Amino acid sequence: MSVDNAGVNTPISEGMNRRNFLGRSGLALAAGASLLATSQNSAADGAKNVGSGTTDPSASPGGTSPSGESNQVFNNRHVLKLQDSNGKPSEEGVVTIDYFGHCALRLTSPKGLTLLFDPWRNDPTGAWGLWFPKEFPKTTVDVGLSTHTHFDHNALDRVESTIILDRLVGTWTFADVQITGVADKHATATPGWYKWINVVKEFGQDPYPPNNPSHLDMVSYVVETGGIRTLIWGDNRHNPPESVWRLWGQIDVLTLPVDGSQHILSYEQGDAIVARLKPKIVIPTHYLAEGTSSTLSTLQTADEWVANQKNKQRVEASTLKIEPGRIASLDRHFFYFGNQVVRV
Fold it and tell me: Is the pTM of the predicted complex or chain greater than 0.85?
């Protein structure tokens, strides 16, 4: 594996899986540029062209710092500027992804529109315990989005944005970005050892469609910009109806919530989704990350799942920069952030 001055990418090795089996008490379910990369196996040439580095403070509206804290007065001046642009989602360019841990991602379009998905927080009732030792960094972006109401996905109060698209269903287009929100349902199979879905039953509710409570409704997002289609999976179930698969269509970058505890999706479910969608890039989410999430969440790392993949690499930075031409040769290549997240 090679080293560049913007960061280091190293392969995932066997035996790295952390086994933390501490349970959490639950009384109620709360609604919750330098280019570098290295690769292995057949995807070597394409992976070398995926950029990796630290967060650029100038990439966010309002001058957001690498920690996510705004150093200017927030208003809509950046959106006003982009409103006059003539960008097209299909026009090829550099797309930047910053990882904030758990399922929180900031995506920046070639024109500079910034979107933050699924910022996390602890359950405000306290029933689910301490998932995150620190508060999500106050972050300035153009658009804030949430896939569902569970606490670990909807800290939109920590996002300073001109636009909030909370569980958007349908198509929204602005500047050089098109977002398609696809309605479906939260995963309920609970394939791991911790059967959190039983809490819903204990409180007299049916967690399964079509009678599930609304906090188990889900929206996934297909984001098209820079000629790249990214699917923000959220906590969607592994087996949606065919109509949902058709709405997703061809996907280039896929985020998937798979961790060692198999809290949302099992390894087999994740593998089947990847095999069906055949994305060029897969980004694991919803796993235990040191300094971001706590063992009390019952989550584990994604090390073991990633280690079993054919094409994979660690990203030793919190940022990926991708372009259509540079990822064209990739086939289901896993880019694993591990503990590398945007830090306060």
Answer: no
Host domain of residue 164:
3-336
**Distance (Å, whole) CA 316 – CA 114:** 22
Find tokens 């995807």 and name the residue: 43
User: What contacts 293, CB < 8 A, 6 or more positions away?
Assistant: 101, 102, 131, 132, 287, 299
Tell me, what amino acid is at 153?
H
**DSSP class of 64:** B
Domain contains 343? no
What's the token pair of residue 102?
Answer: 């758990």
Rounded CA separation 314/295 (Å): 22
Q: pLDDT for 179-191, tens place per residue?
A: 999 999 999 999 9
pLDDT one-digit tens code per residue, 187-231: 999 999 999 999 999 999 999 999 999 999 999 999 999 999 999
Token pair in block for residue 329: 């040769």
| CATH number of the domain to which 79 belongs | 3.60.15.10
Are 118 and 304 in contact, with CB atoms under 8 Å apart?
no
- Asked if 158 contacts 151 with a C-beta cutoff of 8 angstroms, the reply is no
DSSP assigned state of 154: -
